[in-house]
Amino acid sequence: MSLGIEPIKQDKLTITPEEEADKLSLSFAGSIDMENPGEVLGPLFERVHNGALENNLKEVLVDFTELTFLNSSGIKELSKWIMKLGATAEDQRYLIRIRHNKNTTWQATSLPTLTYLVPGTVEIE
Amino acid sequence: MSDSMQSGHVEIRFGPRWKYIAATRSYVQNFVAISIPNDSKADQIAMAISELLENAVKYSDGEEIHISMHIDGQAKKVFLSVSNQGNPETVASLRTFFERVHSGPPLETFLELMKEATTRSDGLSQLGLARIRYEVGGEMELHADDNNYVTVSLTVDVDAKENV
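Above: the input entities. Below: the structure tokens describing the complete assembly.
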């Protein structure tokens, strides 16, 4: 499998992709508080989504434990990805597993909300 | 630090520049954290300020954003407000949207707006106020004077049970 997803470094945000066998992980560090995070996250999530479907991935791990802040425009981009996954035929869907730090207040309050958008598409660990 | 809550007051004015928002969020978090014994509440208040500032910078018609924060140790409440110059159009749409944000249960409204945000093509999220209402709680009010100077204020009860 090769999705060809490149690492991203923009402003205070670093995103490190890792591909291993049939697993893909995206590790976020820094903060998502730019005015338009969609410029970075939109194309990334689109590529991850299409690559996951093409490669029949069962799961994409999104590690937010090193992310210090996520603004509501960033939440919008995550929501778009989840809604797109929700619009995919159920037998082709993969799971978005979000790893969070429960000791970081915004992570404990904001991230679980994403599981309600399309039940069954997102799990929080 | 003792468990008692200390009173304090701060006012900040800055030009509407996006790059100042993160610095102000960090300052507010530190300011609140040294006054109240509840770190997660300080984090939530900093998040709320950040979201309100993002709105103020995006929609400001003037050069200045004004932040006021008062911590009342006796009442165990934090009062904060963010003000900016608007125009008749932005004030009218903010009033309508403010009503929408407060129209239903906090979580359901936030989820509805999250779903709507995914279909927006104008680059806006319009999630900040609903996020504050759901994650921080408290009482949020909107005021606009005859000159379209807009103030969004939030009163947070430090001892209140959280929505989330």
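Note for the figure: The interface with chain B takes residues 12, 31, 33-36, 38, 69, 71-73, 75-76, 79-80, 83, 104-106, 108-110, 112-113, 116-117 of chain A (CB under 8 Å).
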